[in-house]
Amino acid sequence: MGVPRKKARVYPVSEKPMSEKQSLESIVAPWLFKHIELIDRLDSAPKINHKKLINILNHLHFTDGHLFVHMKEIQYGEDLLIPVLSDPCYDGIITCRWVNDQRYDLEKYRLLNLVILDGLSVLLAPAILESSDRESFSIRQPDTVYVLGKRKAKRYYCHGVHAELIQNGFAANGFLLDFNALAFRIRVTPNPDFSFHWFNPEAAATINLYRKDKLIFSGACKYIRQTSSIVEKEIVFAPVDNEISRIKKKRKRSNRLQLTPSPSVSFFHPFFKKKVQRDIHDISITGFSVHEFAEQGVLVPGMILPKMEINFSGSLKIKCAAQVIYCKKEKKGLVRCGLVILDMNFPSYGKLSNILISVIDSRIRISDEVDLDALWKFFFDANFIYSKKYKSIQLYRNDFKKTYGRLYRDNPEIAQHLTYQKNGQIYGHVSMVRAYQEAWMIHHLAAKPMGKKHTGLPILKQLLNYFDGIYRLPSVKMSHMIFYFRSQNRFMKLFFGGFARDLDNLNACSMDLFAYDTYKTASSQNSLPDEWTLNKFDKSDLLQLEHFYRNHSGGLLLNVLKLGDGNPCDEPLEKVYARQDLIRKSTAYSLRFKDRLQAAMIVNQSDLGLNLSELLNGIKIIVTDSRELPWDVLSSAISQLAPVYNIDSVPIMIYPHTYLEERGISYEKQYLMWILDTQYGKEYLEYMQERTKLKIRYLVKFLIEKLLK
Fold first, then answer.
1. Are the C-beta atoms of 239 and 224 separated by less than 8 Å?
2. Residues 181 and 235 in one domain
3. From CA 545, how far away is CA 554, in angstroms rounded?
4. Of these four, 428, 480, 605, 648, which has the most CB atoms within 10 Å of its CB?
5. Do 19 and 83 reside in the same domain of the chain?
6. 313, 343, 373: which is the final residue of a domain?
7. What's the whole-model pTM score?
8. Which residues pair with 70 in a beta bridge?
């Protein structure tokens, strides 16, 4: 016997506008039952026995679910579906109670069938009335139950989801009623002064769905069908595309890994607020894919899942937000759904990347607890702490140890580290720290050979994998990436400076050369000459500073410093560090002559050892008028700011680096400050991937050897 292909569709009796509260009530409102002709095809419909029906009814009772009773109104002959609740079924009698304080006089209606809508099909059970009263009625258990109108995909009823329809200047608002993986139904009313006459069913429309003012879906949709009311309509839409473009396409995808045992993901569905669990098919640092049965799918391209949990064998749970970017049919009735990770906090990202990158290279460790004795030994063995540097820090070595204990054991949200290890010995290291409000600094990049194997390149490759997934996460606050290196370091010039030169876009990646020296904090504080002032940086100075920097550099330094700017909603970086029992302050001052800005002086403060070269614990100076600013005046200004530091000498970095040279003043060294706008992270990753290909392996090996010497 064939299964009827045509679906039994039902329509609500009420055409009144629906409020958010009423959106749930509409699910159990009286419905007109059309397509009665389906009942004439019962002989060819699939069947289930009464025992299975009893199990279904008891499950509905257990879950406080409802069903419908099909009745024909005697006076007008209309067929209605009335919502009812069933009592537990044990003894051959099915008792149902009316809901929503409704009462139906069965002398005015003819009782025909019980109807159960499970979202995928319609179950119809012929009803023979046994007894009734004002509150309930009872029927005999039927011998046979018919399965009508099996859908291609299960329908899920929704509530509490606001719907917004926009099409070429027309707008309407309402609520999501139900959906499946192929389409969804909304009930909307035009905005004031708008009319449904403006709605064109032949054109695509943008549908936005919100739960508690948070966007959970947005996409272009095509019209399927609608009701006929001109005041309020129920419209069925289907997404136009089965794939969306969330991020820029890359030449090379992130490594997709199939793990054993496979992790799973769980979430409360944003449309109907029930928990959903799926096994992860493959996963990368940027996203993952899952499989669904086509007829029971709940994922739609464009859907945003604000609270998900990735579960690794029950021992590790990582929370994130994600978005469905594609749903593609596969064999055996399966649909493969791809999701991109939209956000997660920094510690969670560290845990996820540690698992995935260690699968690629088992010697890589990300933000694991580090044996600090092994770390310090590595820094000395790799000549990262050379004799001159150690001379400058040895008096404060206990403070350094204390800082590193917090950074490498407590795994704070402001720092991450990556090490290359074997049997507890460290052969490579790089770390990153949140240096400014929305800028992170890569530092402490060091390597030493592991036997005959060079470790610098593997560390750099995995740093790229790590960076691939992190720079887009809003919680991390990484709008810019910073890296300081010496201009004579050819390894860094290739992998960092080379990109800046090849891209040739100062709005994307820039390099500024600073002169670096140290200033004795014990120096006497000298007064400034007449008409010279040193005060907190004021927004009125910003235009002069921007004018100078734009014409002298045109880079990204001021975007990082955010002097006189910033989002008032963001938690200040000082508070973020304080929560970790650490220090990070950045205070800007203006050195003026006759109210004209001569230099901006940024006093950076941090715990000793946060950066071993103390690049975050010194004074950064931007000289805006080299000709008018004498060194003795600038030195006096430095002497007034230096006492805030609890070290003998404070690092100073001066831009432009030519300022000291023009005055014949010697200084220790130069640093290039490399800054990347992470909106160009894709371009940087592609550049680096090209540079780390095997065809230039001989060049990389040569540069690493030079670096290690």
1. no
2. yes
3. 12
4. 428
5. yes
6. 343
7. 0.81
8. 81, 113
Bridge partners (DSSP) of residue 593 are: 532, 596
Report CA-CA distances (Å) from 401 to 297, 605, 607.
Answer: 54, 18, 11
* pLDDT, position 302: 93
Q: Which of 130, 148, 166 is the last residue of a domain?
A: 148
Burial 296-322 (b: 16+ CB within 10 A, else e): ebbbbbbbbbbebebbbeeeeebebbb
C-alpha 67/C-alpha 98 separation (Å) is: 10
Nearest to 270 by CA among 164, 161, 180: 161
Residue pair 618/638 in contact by the 8 Å Cβ criterion: no
Q: Please write the tens of the pLDDT for every residue from 531-547.
A: 999 999 988 899 999 99
Express each pLDDT in 629-657 by its tens digit. Answer: 999 999 999 999 999 998 889 999 999 99
What secondary structure does DSSP assign to 442-475, as a single string?
Answer: EEEEEE--BTTB--HHHHHHHHHHHHHHHTT-GG
Task: Encode pLDDT of 284-298 as tens digits.
Answer: 999 999 999 988 899
What's the number of domains the chain is made of? Answer: 3
Would residue 101 count as lying in a domain? Answer: yes
496 DSSP assignment: I
Give the pLDDT confidence of 227-273 residue by residue, as tens digits.
867 778 999 999 998 888 777 666 667 778 999 889 999 999 999 99
Same domain, 213 and 269: no
> Within this chain, do residues 118 and 160 fall inside the same structural domain, yes or no?
no
Strands 415-422 and 10-12 come out as unpaired
Token match 């403070």: residue? 399
Give the domain range for residue 198: 156-239
Residue 13: pLDDT band (50, 70, 90) is very low
173 and 144, same structural domain?
no
DSSP helix/strand/coil, 506: coil
**Helices 681-691 and 456-470: crossing angle, nearest 10°?**
160
pLDDT of residue 378: 92
46 with 107, same domain? yes
Q: Contact 105/135 with Cβ under 8 angstroms?
A: no
Highest mean pLDDT, choosing among 146-155, 364-373, 664-673: 664-673
Q: How many residues can be counted in the chain? A: 709
Q: Confirm whether 215 is domain-assigned.
A: yes
Distance CA 443, CA 478 (A): 15
| CATH number of the CATH domain containing 302 | 2.40.10.220
Say if residues 94 and 138 touch (Cβ distance below 8 Å): yes
Is 449 inside a domain boundary?
no
Distance of CA 680 to the CA centre of its chain: 18
Residues 165 and 133 in one domain: no
What percent of the chain has a predicted confidence (pLDDT) above 90? Answer: 49
Torsion sign (Cα): 620, 626, 631, 632:
negative
Task: Give the pairing type, strands 79-86 and 170-179.
Answer: unpaired
Residue type, 43: D
Classify residue 89: in a domain, yes or no: yes
Domain identity same for 136 and 31 = yes
Does pLDDT of 693 surpass 80?
A: no
* Cα 219 to chain centroid, rounded: 18
Confidence of residue 463 (pLDDT cuts 50, 70, 90): confident
Assess contact for 69 and 106: CB atoms under 8 A: no
CATH number (domain holding residue 37): 2.30.110
